[in-house]
Amino acid sequence: MAHSYQPPLPPRWNRNIRHGWVEFKSGADDIRGYLARPRAAAKAPAIVLVHENIGVIPHRREVTRKLAEAGFGALTVDLYSRVGGQPPQDFKSPEERRQKAFLAANDEQAIGDLEAGCRYLKTLDGVDGGRIGALGYCMGGGTLFAWMCGANASVKAAVAYYGTANVAASSRPDGKALSRMSVASKLQVPLQVHHGEADQAVPFADAKALVEALKKSGQPVEFHSYSGANHAFEDDTHPNYHAEATAKAWERMLAFFGRHLGTRKAAAAE
User: Fold this and answer.
1) Beta 127-137 vs 73-77: how paired, if at all?
2) Distance (Å, whole) CA 31 – CA 17
3) Which one-letter DSSP state was computed for residue 102?
4) Residue 223: what are its φ and ψ, rounded to 5°?
5) CB–CB of 105/129 below 8 Å?
6) Backbone torsion region of residue 20, taken as left when φ is above 0, otherwise alpha when ψ lies between -120 and 50, otherwise beta
7) Which residues pair with 226 in a beta bridge?
């Protein structure tokens, strides 16, 4: 009798990259991250990823590996390390879930962890600690704005996908609403922003207004918009996935980091 059961497959082995979980210190705390980097001997530029409010999900780990395949050392810092590596689960509504996720990864704590991730990258053979970029999504995109606007000590260029422009008072540890506009003029590095015109979580008008404020810093700011794309359009496991917007944004992002960080191949020629 034929059986329909198929055993689960083991993970594929990518011979071109190394990847897996790592740990490093942020102050006195142990923080984990998902690291991927090329196997080649030449020193690679690096990218620190800032995840969305659902944490270091399989898709985010996949993107970390894709960046390594493109020639970058890549580290997604787990901003929920202190609470077990997942956002808080004791919620009764979607809004409460979001509030607790933001509180557990608030800017003040997260930026310190991200800088600790940069310091960890600088200790690794095969990574050029002088060429670090940053990439943030959703909540992480908002945190990236805060990080790059006056709190950055390590990053040379940054990219944000549909980053939060405003944080509600209920999602802040001080109980006060926060607008990213308040620090936009302090932008320290070249920035590229990707946003869907149909975004229902971070209104497109808010994103455009924030970009205009960021430009007042004098730093180069690119803004790419995508017709018909909603929030989270880059996540191919999400109902809002938009393949065309994702492909365009990926190529633009790689070109941007290539211009500002160089490539592993370029480093080998130096």
Assistant:
1) unpaired
2) 22
3) H
4) -125, 120
5) no
6) left
7) 196
The answer on pLDDT for 20 being more than 80 is: yes
CA 9: distance to chain centroid? 29
The two three-digit tokens of residue 21, written as one number:
């979980």
Phi-psi region of 29 (alpha: psi -120 to 50; beta: other; left: phi over 0): beta
Specify the pTM: 0.93
DSSP annotation of 11: P
Residues 139 and 154: beta-carbon distance below 8 Å: no
Residue 8, Ramachandran bin (φ over 0: left; ψ between -120 and 50: alpha; else beta): beta
Percentage of residues of the chain with pLDDT beyond 70: 96
| CA-based end-to-end distance of the chain | 64
Question: Are 129 and 234 contacting, i.e. CB atoms less than 8 angstroms apart?
Answer: no
